């Protein structure tokens, strides 16, 4: 689990409650279920309208990366590729048949299998690059979906405030109830801004970093496996891959 994300969320929300408490505000006023519903559920609903079920499911599945991020060990991958290069040079590409899963990555397993099956190095490189870019584009569509949720949230927060003010106006004959109603109404605006800027956008930024790192990791695998297919000397290949971090 990524405890940094968890700690960041706790600190962000705690700062809001702490500031409210230090300002003499009532903490209970910040806890409003109707405001949360119109902001969170409304934002997700609006985003679903502009998308499709497949993209939305991919996006929600990607959110788990914020707490359980993928691991891309560049050092381990370079070491494994170097071992494969030595083995292929000493025996042949066919000798790598038993090492298909050694990198522990479905992308690398498919790439290595294609190299063993005799795919031409140049066409193999082009094909794998296309696959990596398509995967990157698909991931970024999921990020755009999540970003749209953050874009709609502040507007839904304002709508919630307007709705709250309408209800508050119904109590004009009771100044105390009117004041309380107005205070609660503006909580929706706070929820909209908070949900977008303390939750959605930071998570989107973190996911984008992971996706870019995944693309770089796949580039490492492509260069390494294509280098093995070309019969490059292991030490030369090691030097070429050493720049990936």
Automatic annotation (TrEMBL):
Family to which this protein belongs: Belongs to the exbB/tolQ family.
NCBIfam families (alphabetical): PRK09109.1
Segments passing through the bilayer: 28-49, 149-170, 182-204
GO biological process: bacterial-type flagellum-dependent swarming motility; chemotaxis; protein transport
Protein location: Cell membrane; Membrane
Name of this protein: Flagellar motor protein
UniProt lineage: Bacteria, Pseudomonadati, Pseudomonadota, Gammaproteobacteria, Oceanospirillales
Membrane topology: Multi-pass membrane protein
Annotated keywords: Cell membrane, Cell projection, Cilium, Flagellum, Membrane, Protein transport, Transmembrane, Transmembrane helix, Transport
Main location class: membrane
InterPro entries: MotA-like, MotA_ExbB_proton_chnl
Cellular component aspect of the GO annotation: plasma membrane
Keyword Cell division: no
Pfam families: MotA_ExbB
Residue ranges of domain MotA/TolQ/ExbB proton channel in the record: 106-216
